[in-house]
Amino acid sequence: MLRQNRSKVAPTRAEGEGSEPRRGADSDHPRGSSLVRQDSSFVTISVQGHDGTPAAVTGSSKRASAADSDEDGEGRRVCLCSNRAFTNFMQQRMQAWQPLLSPTRTAGIIGLASVILLSLGVLILATSNSILECKVDYTDDVGVRDIIEIDSRHCTDSQVTELSGSLYFFYELTNYYQNHRRYLKSRSDSQLQGKVYTTTGDVKTACSPRYLASDGRILDPCGLNALSVFTDSFELLRKRSEGRYEVIPMDETRDTICWHFDLDSRFKNPSKEEREKYASSVDFWLFEPAMRKALHMDVPGVGEGVENSHFIVWMREAALPNFRKIYGKVEETPLKLPIYVNITGDTYDVKSFGGRKYVVISQASWLGGRNALLGIFYIVVGAVCLVVCLVIMYAQAQNPRRMGDISWLRKALYAEG
């Protein structure tokens, strides 16, 4: 057991303060004795063993030192350290508590965990299944029809006649790998935060392979991520009479569909003066009329340039190849089916990589949108825990084993001797 060593070697007074003259290491003194010499910052202890061989130990003299003598008296070891090292915390002697995990207790803990996980899984799965969702594939409708009908045939509940509660409008893409390493790295975060680069060397590494426009100007923003922004635009409609539709308002503003962290720190436009000053060498392509129209930049609160809400949503990459991104929140509910979606700009190509495009209207709950995967995951893990619990209980019943003697854990054994 580690004990505190409280033996001290006090430094002597310096010369000139009335102390006796010091004796050198080669002076006559009894065998086994020691002599302390001190300057302004060190203590030197000369030690002579039984064989008469001198030795010296030197160390800092800022604090009193603790010394350990060898059993045969032939030398002295000096530890010039503070008493902080001998606290209960430093010596790991703090009082602690931990459960004694017998097989029965272990099985009980795992069984309790399985009950909790299974309950949460069932709750999440039931909540997810109760969320109404309507989805329509419009990949093949380019040039065929501009208005898509959504009725009960496209919903998770084929008997539903209206959609109520909080409703959100999404677009969904499949077979689109936003999580590809080259795609993820092809962006300039400092450029997205408002810094204007005027030479290719500043953006070539960050945005390769897409950093120059066809006329040789630097793209702002550059990179595969920004240049592949989703450009299809939508309007939600209800039918009033034959051939006459009424627009259902949707909230597409930044505060509604964007993460506040993105709004506060990640996206900022260069000033108008900077855009005009560097227009000859930098292509601010997001401010072109076609992009302003596609991303609804003229709608109040949606924002322009890299501060546009749809652009910000797109720049938060998806982890899986099949994903959906929010487009807006429906402001008028309930909606009686059928409802219609006007695709005002169907320009985004997904057929070249075998993808599909969907429009989705979904309810929202405390869980978010419809997602059975989380509930299934909880149920699977809970089932595994239940099986482990049953195996432990069966093994204990077939081959019972008593706990060993735990008297060695008594606190008295940790007391200092």
TrEMBL record:
Keywords: Membrane, Transmembrane, Transmembrane helix. Its main location: membrane. Residues 35-47 have a biased composition (Polar residues). InterPro entries: CDC50/LEM3_fam (IPR005045). The keyword Transmembrane helix applies. Residues 1-74 are annotated as: Disordered. It is a multi-pass membrane protein. The chain crosses the membrane at residues 107-126, 372-395. It comes from the Eukaryota. It is found in: Membrane. Residues 14-31 have a biased composition (Basic and acidic residues). It holds the Pfam family CDC50. One of its GO terms (cellular component) is endoplasmic reticulum. The keyword Membrane applies. Belongs to the CDC50/LEM3 family. This is Cell cycle control protein 50A. It comes from Neospora caninum (strain Liverpool).
